[in-house]
């Protein structure tokens, strides 16, 4: 079973999530209530999955995600966040998180999400799919230089169906694809979004003269 | 008079007394210089020395005495004025009844201003009148410049006193404003902490309630609704975030306006950025979306899940409203339209077509879906 770290500054929440995970057989190796604690404890315990609240004392969840992904790229970050923090969620996903769940999700949804994230599958809510779609549409409309990855028609179609609330199974049925193929497409959109972010960062670095020349 | 004993008022008074200390040294040097220069007019000559020593000694004493707020008593201020009046009164005795310049001269202004600072305009006025009356009363003849000096004493005292009072009042108001700002900041900080905690508890109740089922599930659902409402309230309070009144006049942020339709059973997705549109088409789109959601509630169920997706392209916006209901049999809407029962067709299709857009209803195995497409350009509100 995977090892998990839980990061949340509310003890009540942290305990509830820890209890649920431990009850399902996960090995909760660490818990943290601030970004600083999260980074040190992560380095010490190297868990497979980090269940992360975005609104924690400095450094925030987005920075923690960046740090974790760069320390150990095989660790999966699942964002467990209160509703209505779209911009932060998008930033965390760009930084490398592979899943997002709202805090009001049930225990079963949480356990399913942790299981999928641990297996390397992204966990998308309709809200996150809408944000990712919006991000690609925005850059398609404003992009002059074509150096950023774009979504294929199939990927856009699948993302749209996720945003409209269809499950992977329903999407697979509707498009006559295998469940695995749908998952792969969703995963690709996420990879492209993160690449997107790297292109932006690299471009910024070059523009700012930080590329060493 | 507690306002005058507040720390802010005392601080103002102390600063004015520090400034007055400088002035007192200047007028003392002037008075001593003139006394030495006119020593020949004194009879006996030793009187000049005594007067000078009194002025030097008294000035040194009051510089020390006025430095501490606790020593600024009525006795001190009264004695200050009495010494000044006393030196005026001895002038005819030591310089003869026909004297021109009084012994202390401008040195009396130190006592005058001390009265004005400590007792404000009324103190300045009384001290000014007393000094002017004694000075004029001793003169055998009053010329223009003697009258002018007396007049200056009478108006200078209350003017300085009044200014002192105004500055003290302003300092009090400034302190009050700073205290109010600090209180507001503290309240906001507490509110953030409380809100954050309340939101977490509501989310937890929602989650646990859903797991327990039955009555607890209903409690959980209510908690979830309150959580969303409280969160949108808090976001609304933060300047520059989430408010649909952010865009320029006559414009609306369609993304924010649609997001407001989210409830426990309705999920609204869309881009993170604002989607600016003229206010009129934005209102019509929101109204059409709301009509579609009402329809879901009516035909599928009060708690039926529904998903709203907003996509913004440079030339158009696309809004999808999907539910998992059984769908509407083909031809039913057209039939209703023919029968003159406009219902959803009227309120959704009509609104969208008036904007130059198109509204399509798709039904299938995975529910019913409205697809609304509205051009972004060429539509004027």
Automatic annotation (TrEMBL), chain A:
Q: Name one Pfam family in it.
A: GerE
CDD domains found in the cross-reference section:
LuxR_C_like, REC_NarL-like
* Response regulatory domain ranges (all copies): 3-118
**Could you tell me which residues carry 4-aspartylphosphate?**
53
User: What keyword terms does UniProt attach to this protein?
Assistant: DNA-binding, Phosphoprotein
- What's an example of a GO molecular-function annotation for this chain? DNA binding
Tell me where in this chain the HTH luxR-type domain is found. 144-209
Q: Which GO terms describe its biological process?
A: phosphorelay signal transduction system; regulation of DNA-templated transcription
Record's protein name: DNA-binding response regulator
Source organism phylogeny:
Bacteria, Bacillati, Actinomycetota, Actinomycetes, Propionibacteriales
């Amino acid at each position: 079973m995977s090892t998990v770290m839980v990061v949340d500054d509310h003890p009540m929440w942290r305990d509830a999530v820890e209890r649920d995970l431990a009850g399902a057989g996960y090995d909760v190796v660490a818990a943290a209530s601030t970004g600083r604690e999260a980074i040190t404890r992560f380095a010490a315990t190297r868990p497979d999955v980090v269940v992360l609240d975005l609104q924690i004392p400095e450094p925030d969840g987005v920075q923690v995600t960046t740090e974790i992904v760069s320390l150990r790229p095989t660790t999966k970050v699942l964002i467990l966040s209160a509703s209505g923090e779209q911009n932060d969620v998008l930033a965390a996903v760009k930084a490398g998180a592979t899943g997002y769940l709202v805090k009001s999700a049930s225990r079963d949804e949480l356990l399913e999400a942790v299981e999928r994230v641990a297996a390397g599958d992204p966990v998308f809510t309709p809200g996150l799919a809408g944000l990712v779609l919006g991000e690609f549409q925005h850059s398609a409309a404003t992009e002059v230089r074509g150096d950023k990855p774009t979504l294929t028609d199939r990927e856009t179609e699948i993302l749209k169906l996720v945003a409209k609330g269809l499950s992977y199974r329903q999407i697979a049925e509707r498009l006559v694809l295998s469940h695995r193929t749908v998952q792969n497409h969703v995963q690709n959109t996420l990879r492209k979004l993160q690449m997107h972010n790297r292109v932006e960062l690299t471009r910024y670095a070059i523009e700012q003269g930080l590329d060493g020349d | 008079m507690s306002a005058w004993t507040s720390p802010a008022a005392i601080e103002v008074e102390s600063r004015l007394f520090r400034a007055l200390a400088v002035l007192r040294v200047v007028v003392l040097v002037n008075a001593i210089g003139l006394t030495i220069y006119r020593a020949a007019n004194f009879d006996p000559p030793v009187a000049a020395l005594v007067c000078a020593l009194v002025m030097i000694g008294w000035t040194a004493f009051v510089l020390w005495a006025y430095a501490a707020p606790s020593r600024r008593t009525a006795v001190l201020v009264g004695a200050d004025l009495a010494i000044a009046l006393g030196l005026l009164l001895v002038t005819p005795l030591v310089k003869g009844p026909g004297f021109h310049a009084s012994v202390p001269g401008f040195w009396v202004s130190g006592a005058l201003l001390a009265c004005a600072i400590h007792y404000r305009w009324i103190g300045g006025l009384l001290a000014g009148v007393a000094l002017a009356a004694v000075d004029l009363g001793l003169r055998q003849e009053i010329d223009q410049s003697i009258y002018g000096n007396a007049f200056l004493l009478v108006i200078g005292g209350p003017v300085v006193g009044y200014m002192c009072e105004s500055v003290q009042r302003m300092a009090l108001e400034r302190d009050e404003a700073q205290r109010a700002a600090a209180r507001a900041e503290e309240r906001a900080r507490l509110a953030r902490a409380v809100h954050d905690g309340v939101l977490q508890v509501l989310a937890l109740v929602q989650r646990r309630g859903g797991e327990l089922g039955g009555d607890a599930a209903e409690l959980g659902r209510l908690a979830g609704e309150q959580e969303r409402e409280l969160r949108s309230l808090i976001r609304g309070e933060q300047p520059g975030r989430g408010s649909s009144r952010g865009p320029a006049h006559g414009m609306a942020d369609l993304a924010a306006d649609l997001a407001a339709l989210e409830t426990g059973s309705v999920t609204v997705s869309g881009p993170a950025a604002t989607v600016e549109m003229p206010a009129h088409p934005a209102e019509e789109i929101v109204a059409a979306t709301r009509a579609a959601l009402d329809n879901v509630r009516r035909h599928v169920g009060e708690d039926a899940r529904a998903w709203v997706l907003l996509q913004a392209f440079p030339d158009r916006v696309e809004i999808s409203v999907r539910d998992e209901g059984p769908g509407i049999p083909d031809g039913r809407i057209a039939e209703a339209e023919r029968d003159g029962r406009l219902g959803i067709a009227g309120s959704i299709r009509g609104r969208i077509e008036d904007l130059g857009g198109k509204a399509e209803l798709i039904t299938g195995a995975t529910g019913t879906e409205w697809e609304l497409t509205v051009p972004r350009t060429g539509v004027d509100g």
